[in-house]
């Protein structure tokens, strides 16, 4: 797993050394070269539009976040008070003060419907149930579709990066479906030695070209993870790797797809994006909560450093990644709902607002669409035994920002107990229609072929949310 917190030293540790552990983009023995070759077959030109998909793992409670019901009975309204925002008439939970101060930069969906009711983030990755087209491998995640449609041989970073480390229930939710393993997301927490993967890819390419020469390129026997903590050392080692590849003549023997694979893994561009030690200290401080909990009582992905996942997402997008997924766990609040939220909501509040502000200052906000949501909402009534809220697929929340959208508004409404939608239901597929639109893709006109050669539209229902246009 991509480490953010060094347990022994009790401080934030650089993620740069993890780059050398990535090794493979996919699964089932497929190499980065395989992915690049498959992407290039689409022939579609890339763009700068991007998606940052924030999964609130477990099912966020709408009535404790963006749809409070202060007039409801105590067992429904819960323990938190609503606070005013900088948008007239809009109130949020008191644990979201930063978002309240920047509410004009967010759109709050209070009427998300269509949940499959499953603890699986796949619906937040594609709009579909994981069972849809199951006989052909299932529907692909949006990021996998983007890799298929937008990828080119000239890309210097993978187009889809998945940072959804967290609970096992969601860890593998970003799936390529019927597009196959070549369109898996890049997973920094999947490890393999860099030099072993590079050598394997080169050997595979020679074999494909009919060359029986055996590669015996030893990149550097002293290349250790401990030494790679130092940035200067790493850059030197990467330069050495590239020089040895060039000197061996292997680059001339490989086709352009393999050359790109070597280029991505040796250029350092992806490594740079994952190395937060390169970030400006003032920006890094922006993503560092002043009162973070050093020893969280309840599980959260990456513990007190979870906010830095939002910074990683920005850096990856800046490096050329078109879709980044990340998760914040654990909103599965069957027990201790309010104590858990006192720990979790400040992370979401700080992370989303820091990300929006950062993107705006860099002139990137109109090109990057941010969506934060979960697999369903939670029960209006607090269970009396454990003080928790249980699963509630009938309605849930979603928060959108960026992408050139009209923000500073609430869309949809629920009844007095937050039990059901009474105004403007918004389906998961409506959200995805909006995300695709923001990427410049018409999901009802563009098709991709399934394994049987049948064209499948990217969405079979849903319309972009007109209020955001």
UniProtKB/TrEMBL annotation:
InterPro entries: Alkaline_phosphatase_core_sf, DUF1501
SUPFAM superfamilies in alphabetical order: Alkaline phosphatase-like
Annotated protein name in UniProt: DUF1501 domain-containing protein
Organism whose genome encodes this protein: Gimesia algae
